[in-house]
Amino acid sequence: MKINKLFLSASFALCTAFLAGAQQGADETEYTFQPHWYIQGQVGMQETLGETSFGRLASFNAQIGAGYRFNPIFGARVVINGLNSKGSITVDGDRSKWKWNYLAPTANVTMDLTNLIGGYNPERLVSAGLFAGIGANISWNNDEANNVNAALKNALYSDMAQAERPNVLRNIWSGTKTRFVTQFGTFVDFNVTDNLRIGLELQANVLPDGYNSKKAGNADWYFNGLVGFKYSFGTTFTKSKRKAAVTEPTVVERIVEVPVEKIVEKVVEKVVVKEIPSPLSRDVFFKISNTKITKEEMEKIAEVARYMKANPDTKVTVTGYADKGTGSLSLNLRLSMQRAQAVVKALTNNYGITADRIIAKSMGEEEAQPYPTPALNRVAICVVK
After folding, report:
1. pTM score
2. Signed CA dihedral, 124, 126, 131, 135: sign only
3. HSE, side-chain direction, 13 A CA sphere, residue 69
4. Could you give the residue ranges of the DSSP H alpha helices within 134-244?
5. What is the pLDDT of residues 126-185, one digit of tens each?
6. Which are the contacts of 133, defined by CB distance < 8 A and separation ≥ 6?
7. Which residues of 110-121 are buried (b: 16+ CB within 10 A; e: fewer)?
8. Can you name the residues that pair with 189 across neighbouring β-strands?
9. Residue 228 contacts by C-beta under 8 Å, 6 or more apart in sequence?
């Protein structure tokens, strides 16, 4: 018993002396950031958001850039990204694709999240951060989209004169187009040397509607996944040694709870969900005291017809209106019904939508106008459900 006590006392004294020596003699490394310039080059893949499953509109992508680190957290860069983007449309079950070229110079602000949260340490193996900025997207060579649009017009509107056939790609463009682009994303860098890093980058890019030649009523997107290098010029940091502060050991009492596993039988219920198409609404506008449908408004009716053919269980309600501030009440009631009937006639005669799938209505005597602007109330509103 005395020998055991003596051994434990000696062991405790040895450990205490070792810890004290380690605490007094241990050196800590102190890093000092040096502002610096860097360049980067990356390659990867792009996915343009469109009317098809993710991955079908993938294309090769490349990016070069230069930047400046002001401090351990914030920096700025200018990058030029580009090669080509892709678009797609499905009409009557047939899918058409096209591609075009672009270059996108963009200015970003960068933020190193690893240094922000964990403190500055340039010798970490991995660091991560965020970036965001704005720029321009310069696009050209949209010939494939124009060929697809021409082929679809001939196929869908063969019963109409060539000059009267509306565009299927309603934002079709040619030549060179420059659009505003917003860019944001995240990056992960792996340190190879003090000046060289290998990294991954994920980007999201937002542009005005029409980048892919289609009219959707919302912004267009493309996403880039890139891998490449980042090379920094000159000295990026300095380091020095300093003695660590001596701290007294602290004894902490803890209560250890032993977990007990409880087996719970899970019941998995399989639920089958039927996909229901979203409602579609289009406003067909008329000129004052007129029931003739213009070429531009006929495109909206063609869009309604395509949607109904793609969703055979849907029906459309066509409600005609007239501007109450123009003409007599009896004239407006008759004009609103004639406008609804003009749209119904176009759906049945021009696009083959059967009459049992169409409900025609018109404004009532006390019914409120759909728009506060009088000119916009010369309209027939189509709602497909």
Report:
1. 0.56
2. positive
3. 24
4. 143-156
5. 999 999 999 999 999 999 999 999 999 998 998 888 888 999 999 999 999 999 999 999
6. 106, 107, 108, 109, 182, 183, 184
7. bebebbeeeebe
8. 127, 199
9. 40, 41, 42, 43, 44, 63, 198, 199, 201
In eight-state DSSP terms, residue 291 is: -
By the 8 A CB rule, do 58 and 46 touch? Answer: yes
Residue 331's contacts (CB-CB under 8 Å, 6 or more residues apart) are 322
Average pLDDT over residues 268-282: 71
Fold of domain 280-384: 60s Ribosomal Protein L30; Chain: A; (3.30.1330)
The rounded distance, in Å, linking the Cα atoms of 383 and 281 is: 4
What confidence category does residue 245 fall into, taking pLDDT thresholds of 50, 70 and 90? low
Whether residue 77 contacts residue 66, with contact meaning beta carbons closer than 8 Å, is answered with yes
Do 45 and 222 form a contact (C-beta atoms < 8 A)? no
Q: What Rg do the C-alpha atoms of the chain give, in angstroms?
A: 34
Domain ranges of the chain: 30-241, 280-384
Question: Which structure tokens are listed for 343?
Answer: 């749209």
| Residue 48: its H or E element | strand 36-48
What band does 363 get if pLDDT is binned at 50, 70 and 90?
Answer: confident
Q: Which two tokens stand for residue 211?
A: 């980048």
Contact 52, 88 (CB under 8 A): yes
Q: Which fold has domain 30-241?
A: Porin (2.40.160)
pLDDT in tens, 292-343: 999 899 999 999 999 999 999 999 999 999 988 888 888 889 999 999 999 9
